[in-house]
């Protein structure tokens, strides 16, 4: 065989070996769809797999992650936001194709847009001022996400030129945007830590928000506004004999929880070798066996405390505090500035926001509290809806999962399907037990 032909066959073999194998099964478990991924072990690939599922707003109810040498095996029990198994073939096919290509990396395309990154001290009305400046500078907000935590705010806003619909690339215009926004972020008390930047880079938005808040050291800051959400319980201990650090997280279950935790561990340069994720009722229990990228466990008490703080912050950044308001209206210049100005004039603080535009329709979600972080007065909310438009601004709630019904269905799964489900769960627990990674698989 000629050398070139040999190399072609070798490259095909490497491709087959490194391409993840994906199996999606709706028959094994009566309460969830099983998504199994076998892949070569690579730093960040677990995060990419979880990202595929969470970008579809799927709940990961259970998961087993285990590595053997250079190979990973991940099993996820997922449902939709209603707590039901996945039945849409187009969604299932999308998951298979996306997970099958995660070794190539996945990013969302933002062609034709300019990305603005902002961090600073949060205050009532800040978002209104930001959108007012962008409207004044003829910037059209196409998509944006805003997080607040511990009195800090991080915004990733994708804009284009209002008149031409093209990216903003003129250096003088960019300088004006940055200068105006920096002045807004500084206010009277944030002269040193307010930051703005303009980028054409493509990054997963929510991962970038985690990175921005991590760089801003929000995990170390004391909250300026009152927060009602309970802080997650995080413990970190070393298993010296096996050379792992064991991280346990216990908190309220929600969508994208696993993504937030794995994202933070990945960006802190830790590798997850084994993990078990379980939910009971509305609570989530996550256990990770991690090492540094150089193969060593956590080495000091300050580092251990830092991991605890960072994971608590990762969970809390997305905690849905306040009333959820959904704005659906025809898009127009200044719409966001007008809506958020109404919030500001009524002393409502936006704790989180997701902005999107599709076919000239604005689809925006805001979480709002009063000025000190308490629930907003329902009468005030109704007054604001009257001003903005009852048909445009609606109070929304996420559908509540039927936890009790789900538990009953699991108890009744005693037939063949139930036996297979228990066998699957026991298999992965037994593998972890045999590796010496858990104390019991029963």
UniProtKB/TrEMBL annotation:
One GO MF term on file is: amino acid binding
Protein keywords? Repeat
Q: Which domain of life is it from?
A: Eukaryota
Which positions fall inside the ACT domain? 115-199, 324-404
UniProt keyword Repeat present: yes
Q: Which InterPro entries does the UniProt record give?
A: ACR1-12, ACT-like_dom_sf, ACT_dom
Keyword Repeat applies: yes
Role according to the record? Binds amino acids.
Q: Which PANTHER family match?
A: ACT DOMAIN-CONTAINING PROTEIN ACR4-RELATED, ACT DOMAIN-CONTAINING PROTEIN ACR8
Q: What is this protein called?
A: ACT domain-containing protein ACR
State the organism named in the record.
Erythroxylum novogranatense
């Amino acid at each position: 065989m000629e050398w070139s032909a040999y190399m072609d066959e070798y490259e095909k073999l490497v491709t087959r070996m490194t391409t993840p194998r994906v199996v999606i099964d709706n028959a094994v478990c009566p309460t969830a769809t099983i998504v199994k991924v076998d892949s070569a072990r690579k730093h960040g690939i677990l995060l990419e797999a979880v990202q595929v599922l969470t970008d579809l707003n799927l709940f990961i109810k259970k998961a087993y992650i285990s590595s053997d040498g250079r190979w990973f095996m991940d099993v996820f029990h997922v449902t939709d936001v209603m707590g039901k198994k996945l039945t849409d073939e187009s969604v299932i096919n999308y998951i298979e194709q996306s997970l099958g290509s995660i070794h190539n990396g996945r990013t969302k395309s933002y062609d034709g847009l300019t990305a603005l990154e902002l961090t600073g001290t949060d205050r009532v009305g800040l978002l209104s001022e930001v959108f007012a400046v962008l409207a004044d500078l003829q910037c059209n907000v196409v998509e944006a996400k805003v997080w607040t935590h511990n009195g800090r705010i991080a915004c990733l806003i994708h804009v284009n030129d209002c008149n031409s619909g093209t990216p903003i690339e003129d250096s003088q215009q960019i300088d004006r945007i940055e200068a105006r926004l920096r002045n807004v972020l500084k206010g009277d008390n944030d002269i040193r830590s307010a930051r703005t930047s303009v980028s054409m880079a493509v990054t997963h938005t929510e991962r970038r928000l985690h990175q921005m808040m991590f760089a801003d050291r929000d995990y170390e800051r004391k909250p300026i506004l009152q927060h009602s959400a309970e802080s997650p319980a995080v413990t970190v201990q070393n298993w010296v004999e096996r050379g792992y650090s064991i991280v346990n997280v216990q908190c309220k279950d929600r969508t994208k929880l696993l993504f937030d935790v794995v994202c933070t561990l990945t960006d802190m340069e830790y590798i997850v070798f084994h993990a078990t994720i379980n939910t009971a009722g509305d609570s989530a229990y996550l256990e990770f066996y991690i090492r540094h990228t150089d193969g060593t466990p956590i080495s000091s008490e300050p580092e251990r405390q830092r991991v605890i703080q960072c994971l608590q912050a990762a969970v809390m950044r997305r905690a849905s505090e306040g009333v959820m308001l959904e704005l659906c209206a025809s898009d127009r210049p200044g719409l966001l500035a007008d809506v958020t100005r109404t919030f500001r004039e009524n002393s409502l603080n936006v704790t989180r926001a997701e902005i999107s535009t599709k076919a000239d329709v604005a689809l925006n979600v805001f979480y709002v509290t009063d000025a000190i972080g308490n629930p907003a007065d329902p009468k005030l909310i109704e007054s604001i809806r009257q001003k903005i438009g009852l048909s445009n601004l609606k109070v929304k709630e996420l559908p509540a999962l039927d936890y009790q019904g789900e538990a009953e269905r699991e108890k009744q799964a005693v037939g063949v399907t139930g036996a297979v489900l228990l066998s699957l769960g026991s298999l992965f627990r037994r593998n972890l037990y045999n590796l010496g990674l858990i104390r019991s698989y029963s």
